[in-house]
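Hey,

Quick one before I head out. I ran the complex with glutathione overnight. Inputs first:
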Amino acid sequence: MITVHHLNNSRSQRILWLLEELGLDYEIVGYKRDATTNLAPPELTKIHPLGKSPVITDGGTPVAESGAIVEYLVRKYGKGKFMPAETSPDFVPYLHWLHYAEGSAMLPVMLTLYTMRLGEAAAPLRPRIESEIANHFGYMEKAIGSKDFFVGNELTGADFQIVFILEAARSLGLMKPYPNLNRYLDAIHARPAYKRGVERGGQYDLGG
Ligand SMILES: N[C@@H](CCC(=O)N[C@@H](CS)C(=O)NCC(=O)O)C(=O)O
């Protein structure tokens, strides 16, 4: 049995959505963020030493880091869904977008979140962070264009990774200049499997 160690309002929501799209049986063990610090509770370190979400266990094996979890589930249970064949011209773009989300696009979003808390003390950092937001979000805006998904014409593991970045950005008010990304995100939110994932996970609100 697959167990998702699910932290409220966190990246583990993308794993619930993926499991719903895959139509797999899974169970959820819920963890609550600390009301003051917003950090995960220490019990999560019993599943994986980093104590971060998402982490899943599958037959006792823990898998941590969302990109690794998405790749693990798609390869092991996807039966060819949600990832192009290695011989397909979409394979390299798939790898790029799958890794790009957490590897590059999330950094300026996190820096925006952290520097907001610093107020005026963060002023010298802001131009660089804002230019990186424009760089990465401009890149994604152009890439999605009028398409439904980031890779080819199909939902792939890359979309599960990118959607959380856009949700986090929307909660910080960073998404207004990007109509294509907003259209894409709204369409994803309308998917029945996405909605089922939110129902199973409980309240999902990144604060925007
Ligand atoms: N790159 C990691 C990031 C994991 C991460 O930082 N998760 C956040 C939730 S979105 C977390 O566990 N925060 C609580 C904490 O750091 O205590 C991944 O995608 O799995």
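Residues 7, 10-11, 39-40, 52-54, 65-66, 102 surround glutathione (CB under 6 Å).

Talk tomorrow,
K.
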